[in-house]
Design a protein that fits this description.
This is N-acetyltransferase hpa3. InterPro entries: Acyl_CoA_acyltransferase (IPR016181), GNAT_dom (IPR000182). It holds the Pfam family Acetyltransf_1. Residues 8-164 form the N-acetyltransferase domain. Keywords: Transferase. By secondary structure, the protein is an alpha+beta fold. The protein has a domain at 1-142: Aminopeptidase. 32% of the residues lie in helices and 19% in strands. The protein has six helices and eight strands; from the N terminus they run E-E-H-H-E-E-E-H-E-H-E-E-H-H. The protein has a six-stranded mixed sheet, sandwiched between helices. A two-stranded antiparallel sheet has the order 7-8. 22% of the residues are buried.
């Protein structure tokens, strides 16, 4: 469903938007210093056009017909409501035209779609150091009091190396961020030994992507509109 906001229009992405979306997508990935395989990019765009897929994408278009940015969202089940909640995963606006309202228009497009299906909530993640993006986000939503934890198979969890199930996850409070890697350590009765282990954890090799995001002030998965 298309929506008008001033001179901007937001609408579901179309097949003819692929070239421009790929250009924005490349900028989005470059910002996060990550590489996405072509087969993933191709599959992602195909999902946008599949009416039976849960992934939804929208674009912001200028009065002249130029695509200025995009957003990706998806509904999913929740144990706290009968209706699906909506996760806004990606948000990116061409850096050359920021502060023109495209980011807000895209967020409100997702809100409108959520209302249409009677979803009780839309949520997204933001890198905690991205204060610039938060200037917009506090106007269109409220900050949650919850931290986000992530895991992937490449994390070196010591607890998977035959250590007892009695493990706990330790991280540095001094440098905590949603991207901070958690490492499993065995529970010890010796507090001094535990403290030393925790301090060593703080000195472990940092995530290159996480460091670059902190330097650039980027969000977790949502680029500043």
């Amino acid at each position: 469903m298309s929506q008008q906001r001033g001179t901007l229009t937001t609408r579901p992405i179309e097949s003819g938007d692929e070239a421009r979306w790929r250009s924005l997508w490349a900028g989005y990935n470059a910002f996060y210093e990550r590489e996405i395989a072509e087969k993933v990019t191709k599959t992602t765009f195909a999902r946008f056009l599949d009416p039976d897929d849960v992934v939804q994408a929208a674009v912001a278009v200028s009065a002249e017909g130029h695509v200025l940015g995009f957003t990706t969202s998806m509904p999913h089940r929740s144990t706290s409501s009968i209706e699906d909640v909506v996760y806004l995963q990606d948000l990116f606006v061409d850096p050359s035209i920021r502060n023109g309202g495209a980011g807000r228009a895209l967020i409100e497009h997702v809100y409108a779609e959520a209302r249409r299906v009677k979803s009780p909530k839309v949520y997204w993640h933001n890198q905690i150091h991205n204060h610039r993006a938060q200037l917009l986000y506090v106007k269109v939503g409220k900050r949650s009091d919850r931290a986000m934890y992530t895991w992937d198979p490449d994390y070196k969890l010591l607890g998977w190396l035959g250590i007892s199930e009695d493990v706990f996850f330790a991280s540095s409070l001094r440098s905590f961020s949603p991207q901070h890697t958690l490492t499993a350590l065995p529970i010890r009765d010796d507090v001094s030994e535990l403290k030393a282990a925790s301090e060593n954890l703080c000195k472990t090799e940092p995530s290159t992507t996480g460091d670059s995001q902190r330097r650039n002030g980027s969000s977790n998965e949502n680029e500043e509109p």
